[in-house]
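Journal club prep — side note

Before the paper discussion, L.F. wants everyone to see what a predicted structure for a comparable chain looks like in C-alpha cell form. Sequence:
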Amino acid sequence: MNTALDISTSALVAQRMRLNAISGNIANMTTARNEEGEAEPYQARFVVFEPDESMRTSGGGVGVKVASVETETKEPLLKYQPNHPLANDQGYVAYPNINLTSEFVDALEATRAYEANIGVMEITKNMGRETLRIIG
C-alpha cells in the first residue's frame, strides 16, 4: 500500500513542477529582455517526465519523475513597434512565442492529473482502513 502512495506522490511532485513551468511561461509571455537587460525574448520551458523504476510494484506499476526541464526552440514573435526601446534596425521587437491557449490546456491537463492522483491516494487510504477494520 505504501508503494501505491509513493507512486501517486511522485506524480503529484512531477505535475507540480509541470504547473510551475507553465505558470512561468504565462508570466513571461511579454518578457522581451533577459536578466542582464539585453533584448532577448524569454524561451518557454516544458517538463519531460520519465518512469521511475525505483518505485516498481509487483503489479507492474511504476512511479514518475522529472527527467529534465527543457527550453523551447521556437523562433520569437516579431511585432512592429518602431518606437519601442528594444526595437531592432527594422523596427521589430522580439517577443516570446508562447501560445496562451496551449498553456491553459497544459495547465488544465496537469491539474486533472494532480486531482486524479489525489483520488487514488484517497482510495488507497480507504482500502487500508477497511482492511484493518476487517482484520481487527
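L.F.'s comment for the group: The first strand starts at residue 45 and ends at 52. Keep this in mind when we get to the figures.
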